[in-house]
Amino acid sequence: MHTMPILNHSLWLAKAHNTLANSPLSGDIHTDLVIIGGGYSGLSAALHAAQQGVTVHLLEAHTVGYGGSGRNVGLVNAGLWTPPNEVEKTLGHQAGRMLNTVLATAPDLVFSLIQQHQIECSAQRSGTLHCATNRAGLRQLEQRLAQQLQRNAPVSLVGPTITEQRTGSCQFLGALFDPRAGTLQPLNYALGLAHAAIKAGAIIHTHSPALSCQQISKRINNANKSVNNKRGSPHWLVNTANGSITANKLIHATNAYNTLSATNAHFTTVNYAQFATCPLTEKQRRTILPNGEGCWDTNQVMSSFRMDDRGRLIIGGVGSLDGKAKQVHIKWAHRKLKALFPHITEYEFEYLWTGQIAMTSDHLPRIARLGSYGIRLYGYSGRGIGPATVFGKEAASWAITGNEDGLPVAITDPTPDTCTGLKAAYFDMGATINHCLSHRL
Predict the structure, then answer these.
(1) Alpha-carbon torsion, ordered 379, 381, 383, 388, to 10 deg
(2) Looking at the domain assignment, is residue 143 inside a domain?
(3) Closest CA to 183 of 296, 60, 19, 52
(4) Which domain holds residue 407?
(5) Of 113, 305, 360, 406, which is the most exposed, with the fewest CB atoms less than 10 Å away?
(6) Is residue 313 situated within a structural domain?
(7) Residue 2 domain flag
(8) How far apart are the C-alpha atoms of 81 and 103, rounded to whole Å?
(9) Number of domains composing the chain
(10) Distance between CA atoms of 73 and 395, rounded to whole angstroms?
């Protein structure tokens, strides 16, 4: 075993295929819908809008899936981190029930898109296991089970013996199994959505960060008569380094990777680090997650683990690998792997990387109003794949019809969160201290 990983970048990026080589935006154009952000939300919106004949231009500051969509664990979950009763308490019964219902079927949408568009992303719908690390965690799972059964969810709580059989680890007192969920290669899923959107007629401009985004006044509109405006008066002007887009509708979908600093304070950025081993031997792989579930635990400083399609074991936990605490988190990952699977004595970490989560104050996603004819989607709080795909689809419907009633949550005025920088530092410091002291517990 080596104590240093081989490559300090994402496994998903290293193993990506069907990548896009789109040109940056150049010149001044007009479109029905402009989307800022080439992650799941923006790509889903682009795909579904283009399929309905809407002209769509999407701006991505880097490459498709550069942000959280290409860096996450790859778990396709039903629902949110927040228990359904708490969702309904926060939003109100009717609104909360609607959100719970919509997101309970989020994996159906994800896996149907994968099948419909033949997206090669190692999709496996084998469910997920939420694993109890202690009695308090087990009680938490029992409460979640009761709430899910009230909503006719097909979930079950399995005991320690079955949990050990399914995970390969004896560290858990039980696990909540959700067969609706699954795993995939997250960046390849994003790339697949992008190719499907382009095939439907959407135009994607990579390496095109939005430098400014503003509503168009009559004065600006009159000064810009050269823009093709056959579909009505544009309401938005988005500028990049080499061009501009005027559009009738705007969807801002950068989530935690925002390029417009003026709107950065509506969530707390939480870092999440992951560590992927080299492919394990056939003997090693035989007992670890033989059914292919994705897993996370009930610890206050949560961690996750899963296998990829090549037999790499991927350990994840809160923390950043971009600062001085890097070695603390690497050592923690080694200890975590040994604690979970002590029989895995020969292995190497081949890749490690950090992604960012947009965490709202109540851990619920938001749709914020951006003036007239514009919305911003954000705040998936660590549950990006299913919810973001759903939110993108419904945002496309809003862009086409103007109807707000079908959105998963109500559009609200932007409400800046408080002390986001301090909160982000608190999460990083808490994870670092926890990972540093875990070997003593």
Answers:
(1) 10
(2) no
(3) 296
(4) 11-127+180-440
(5) 406
(6) yes
(7) no
(8) 11
(9) 1
(10) 25
Q: β-pairing, 303-307 with 313-318?
A: antiparallel
Q: Following DSSP, what letter does each residue of 381-394 receive, concatenated?
A: TT--HHHHHHHHHH
**Phi, psi angle pair for 362, to nearest 5°:** -110, 10
- 363: left (phi > 0), else alpha (psi -120 to 50), else beta? left
| Contact yes or no for 274/350 (Cβ under 8 A) | no
Which region, left, alpha or beta, applies to residue 311 given φ > 0 means left and ψ of -120 to 50 means alpha?
Answer: left
- 5 lies in some domain: no
C-alpha distances out from residue 256 to 64, 192, 222, 381, 418, Å: 15, 21, 35, 9, 16
* Cα 194 to Cα 75, 168, 288, 402, distances in angstroms: 19, 36, 33, 24
Cα–Cα separations (whole angstroms), residue 282 to 108, 119, 205, 304, 388: 32, 27, 42, 22, 35
Q: What is the pLDDT of residue 260?
A: 65
DSSP 65-110: T-SGGGTS--EE-SS-SS-HHHHHHHH-HHHHHHHHHHHHTHHHHH
Amino acid at position 313, single letter: L
Per-residue pLDDT tens digits for 126-143: 999 999 999 999 999 999
Q: What is the pLDDT of residue 224?
A: 45
Which positions of the chain have pLDDT values less than 70?
Answer: 1-8, 217-232, 259-265, 423, 426, 431, 439-441
Strand partners, 243: 27
What pLDDT score was predicted for residue 4? 46
SS3 304: strand
Nearest-CA neighbor of 320 among 422, 430, 417? Answer: 430
The CATH number assigned to the domain holding 67 equals 3.50.50.60
